Amino acid sequence: MFFKSSRNKKALRVLLDSYAQDIAAHFSLAKESVPAEWFHLDAKVLTVTLPFACQSQHDELTRIILQNAHAKEQGIDKVQINTQIPSFATHKDAVINIKNIVAVSSGKGGVGKSATAVNLAYALLQEGARVGILDADIYGPSIPTMLGNKTASPASSDNKTMTPISAHGIVANSIGYLVPEEDAAVWRGPVASKALLQLLNETRWPVLDYLIVDMPPGTGDVQLTMAQQVPLTAAIVVTTPQDLALADAQKGIAMFDKVDVPVVGLVENMSAYVCDNCGHVAHIFSKLGGSRLAERYALPLLGSLPLSLSIREYADAGTPLLLKADKSDAEKQIAQMYQAVAIQMGAQLSAGLELRAEQSSHLKGDPIAIQIE
Ligand SMILES: Nc1ncnc2c1ncn2[C@@H]1O[C@H](COP(=O)(O)OP(=O)(O)OP(=O)(O)O)[C@@H](O)[C@H]1O
């Protein structure tokens, strides 16, 4: 080992402290959220094991660490960054093979909750996480459209459980794959909640780091029951910046508070429109609403996404914008915004939540293979 004497132990503490500072600053975390256990030093090689996926940041993190004055002093010349996403504690028992379930919700309809859920799922995948998506929007399932597989239907070998649908590296299930839209649209609340629990528990999920749940819009009894019955790790509230949507987003925050599910952050969608021709920025749905709401509730603003033709076109065409190989500059910017949301979500979960006492007893299957097309 590199540090042997007590004097060197002190040097090690100083070194790790200084790395913790660097990493916390990079991810906008408090320094206390970056514990010494993330670091392992062996001779001149520093291994950093992060509890969230951030593949796009590994090179930058390596650069930051190697440039750290203490690292230079101690002759560290190699950095290895690993990802090990843990399972965070929930009030209800975990679902088999799912480490963490994150609800994407909105107080108001049509604010872009499903588009956010889908793009977040692919951003998490690109950052190196294993991801599934569950469409809980029983009354208006749009995930099959956004994944481009409306006519798919989950196979069942035993008539009891379903194999989720694979879509460009993630897995999904939705009531939209199972029954005609007009049938589900007339279900009463208890039937809708039961259908969601069945979808969740009777799907044979591979081992997933995150299952993203696209909740039905609103904060009524159905949403409350769903939030209560599903072992949610945390929730994200999506809003547009105008007053009406913000008022409903507050109801969403209050709903999760009521059922003791932490809100990991807000996403402001359709925050501004940038004209493709002249670059003029128009705040169609008002300005800064998301950041003011985040401030009021002391919640992280995970990201602000523009009103963008590309977001709509890719979502409606069922082709993930994030996975497109030859993105235009504008598309690259949007992809980076979603990646930042994904990284912040993971970082904030690790900063704010306790670990599940039993990490692996509910993980019984094979992990989904990460295949980015
Ligand atoms: N940032 C954006 N820019 C442009 N169009 C968007 C954006 N976000 C979502 N959309 C589009 O707006 C429409 C509604 O989005 P979406 O279905 O995601 O909303 P929702 O909040 O889930 O709706 P619902 O209340 O029906 O569940 C879709 O056509 C989607 O492609």
Automatic annotation (TrEMBL):
Homodimer. GO terms for molecular function: 4 iron, 4 sulfur cluster binding; ATP binding; ATP hydrolysis activity; ATP-dependent FeS chaperone activity; metal ion binding. Transmembrane segments: none annotated. SUPFAM superfamilies: P-loop containing nucleoside triphosphate hydrolases (SSF52540). Pfam families: ParA. This is Iron-sulfur cluster carrier protein. Binds and transfers iron-sulfur (Fe-S) clusters to target apoproteins. Can hydrolyze ATP. One of its GO terms (biological process) is iron-sulfur cluster assembly. CDD domains: Mrp_NBP35 (cd02037). GO terms for cellular component: cytosol. ATP binds at G107, K108, G109, G110, V111, G112, K113, S114.
